[in-house]
Amino acid sequence: MCDTRNALIEELNPTFLFTWKGTRDGSGERYHSHDYAEFSFVLSGAGRYRIDDKIYEIAEGDLLILNPGTRHQVLASDPKETPCTEFFVAFTDIQLRDFPKNVLPVPQAGPILHTTGDLRQKLFKICSSMEAESTVYRQGKYYMLQSYLIQMILLVIREQYEPEENHALGYAFESVNKKYIVERIITFFEDHYAQKVSLDQIAENMYLSPFYISKIFKSETGDTPIRYLINIRLEKARDILEKDTDSSIKEVALSVGYDDAYHFSKLFKKKYGVSPSEVKKGNRSTQVCAHAAQTVRT
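Given the sequence above, the corresponding structure tokens read:
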């Protein structure tokens, strides 16, 4: 942990240069350095970097802090692993007390900050916001991007200069936050089960990665998000089949989010041991018998 006296920020007005998002699965770029500072946040996947003649393994949630003059190169990924998708932010004109111009503090173990919990989620959200802002042409675009950059710089400084006792609070918050995220996803499923829903869509809306969402959802519910959604859909379908004798199987399938009635029927039978048509037929027979009994009584 660094000495907090060396991290005083007297003024923070960086010049934002550019952002770039990309996936690279090979050693396509040369071993190089820049005269500006650069962040690289790993959005997904895993890989390796050569930084100042040392080899580092990187993975989702890692933030590379590449100060001016830091030589770096992406190395070929393991074919068994998903290639890294990174979000780069380049900037200059920063000055921290007792640091050279344009230089940010880095962890003692090297120029990679391994993020978790709340910090990781904030960085995902900032990168997503910067990407969205970069694609539009609106008044104040540069200043919006600069404001996101300032947030990133401050988060990096706080993470390294935060007192140890505050980290324990972060872990407790992370646990509560996980539960809240899962509850939001379940509510979304309940409200939108009849629509096309993908994990990527949920991740984008919540500014999180699909991998992170899957991991915390399973840790809280014991099931994957998509499997959970399928169960909701099939339960809704069974309710419809038991109450509605007029709708066709295709109409029931469409009402719970399935375009393919055959695929829907396979999922239904796998869960309940009977086909949708059998439930529908049994329901119709029950209603006919009930109607006949009522006629005899009258």
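Residues 6 and 98 are 6 Å apart (CA to CA). Try to locate this feature in the token string yourself.
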